[in-house]
Design goal:
The chain is built from 5 helices and 21 strands. It has 360 residues and is an alpha+beta fold. The protein has 4 domains: 83 residues, conserved putative lor/sdh protein from methanococcus maripaludis s2 fold (Beta Barrel), CATH 2.40.420.20; 88 residues, Efflux pump adaptor protein, beta barrel domain (Elongation Factor Tu (Ef-tu), domain 3); 59 residues, RNA polymerase II/Efflux pump adaptor protein, barrel-sandwich hybrid domain (OB fold (Dihydrolipoamide Acetyltransferase, E2P)); 67 residues. A hairpin with a 2-residue loop joins strand 15 and strand 16.
Length: 360
């Protein structure tokens, strides 16, 4: 009995001791390492590398695309269609028939004109011989007498009628004078009656496009024919064009003038009626080094840049040759192509400051 009691006391004591140790460990705070006072926190600065490319000054403009060739399809006479190629989006070649009318009525008119002309010619020739017989000392009529006789015999009127009948017969059809694409919102079927002067559609050639760009009157003087223009469509497609003309008139109310630009469009990617952006190259400036515009800062009303040397920055006063919204051109001896200049997070740093560089 005594041995069992001693055993129980020993177990209870062990449990109490373990509980005290666990409680003490649970409430004991871990040691925190102290921060060394010598640690230096360097600012992170964004840098960019200079190059030797030229700087291009441009004017940003917007315009509407036009086809370089556009022909309204308008019959000169009325008639009934026998065949046509007037379908929206249909490509035709030079000489293809755009439409053909029934020609029977015009063929009859032509035969009538030929008969009238033959009669008038016969009468004119008989009257000419008769007059020559009455005047024995001449063998030909004077130009005045011949012209008078032509009018008196009806020969002039008959010849005019024949020429008109032949011409009107040609109006019963129309051929494509150039290769292009047909645009129409009409559906035409064989046998349809078409009135003369009624527009059936348009034949357009936009393998070359023309764009009219509006410029402020203050900008017009900076543009010349022959200037290069980069054209960008809404989907990001780019083509290069050239200024071919400058409008001589400035809009009084809007104070704008127009330049006309033409560009090759062989794949027909850009459509007439599209809005496009243009960048008119008005000047190219070359220099020792080109850098992003963000590199340029001002201290004490003087322009400067920060150049990276190892992990330090050196500020250098500069006098930019040219400045745009994107680039600057520098001719300083201290800056060469390949140098690294600060372009972001550099507003508060100072000369010879140490930084954590990151290249953009």
């Amino acid at each position: 009995m005594k041995i069992q009691s001693k055993t129980k006391i020993t177990l209870v004591s062990a449990l109490l001791l373990a509980s005290l140790l666990f409680y003490g460990c649970e409430n004991e705070e871990p040691e925190r390492p102290e921060r060394p006072s010598q640690v230096e926190i360097l600012p992170q600065v964004i840098f960019s590398v200079t190059d030797d490319q030229p700087l291009h000054r441009v004017l940003n403009v917007r315009g509407i695309v036009e086809p370089v060739k556009e022909l309204p399809i308008i019959p000169r006479v009325a008639g009934f269609l026998t065949s046509h190629n007037i379908q929206d989006g249909k490509r035709v070649r030079t000489g293809d028939v755009l439409f053909q009318f029934e020609t029977e009525e015009w063929q009859i008119g032509l035969r009538e004109a030929e008969i009238a002309y033959a009669r008038a010619l016969q009468e004119f020739e008989l009257e000419s011989r008769q007059r020559l017989r009455t005047v024995s000392d001449i063998d030909t009529l004077t130009a005045f007498d011949e012209r008078l006789l032509r009018n008196q015999t009806g020969y002039t009127q008959a010849r005019t009628g024949l020429d008109r009948a032949r011409l009107e017969l040609t109006y019963t059809s129309m051929k494509a004078p150039f290769e292009g694409v047909v645009f129409t919102d009409r559906i035409l079927t064989q046998g349809t009656f078409v009135s003369g002067g009624q527009e059936l559609g348009k034949l357009i050639d936009y393998s070359t496009i023309r764009i009219r760009f509006d410029l402020l009157e203050s900008e017009l003087a900076r543009v010349r024919t022959g200037f290069d223009v980069e054209i960008t469509s809404a989907d990001g497609y780019n083509v290069n064009g050239r200024v071919v003309a400058i409008s001589p008139i400035v809009d009084r109310d809007r104070k704008t003038g127009q330049i006309i630009v033409e560009a090759a469009n062989s794949n027909l990617r850009i459509k007439p009626g599209m809005s496009v952006d243009g960048r008119v190259l008005i000047e190219t400036v070359e220099g020792r080094a080109r850098a992003p515009r963000e590199a340029l800062l001002h201290r004490d009303n003087r322009p400067l840049v920060f150049k990276l040397n190892g992990d330090q920055v050196e500020w250098i006063y500069v006098d930019p040759v040219a400045v745009t919204s994107e680039w600057i051109i520098l001719n300083e001896d201290e800056i060469s192509p390949g140098d690294t200049l600060a372009v972001d997070n550099h507003f508060a740093i100072s000369h010879l400051a140490r930084v954590r560089p990151r290249i953009r």
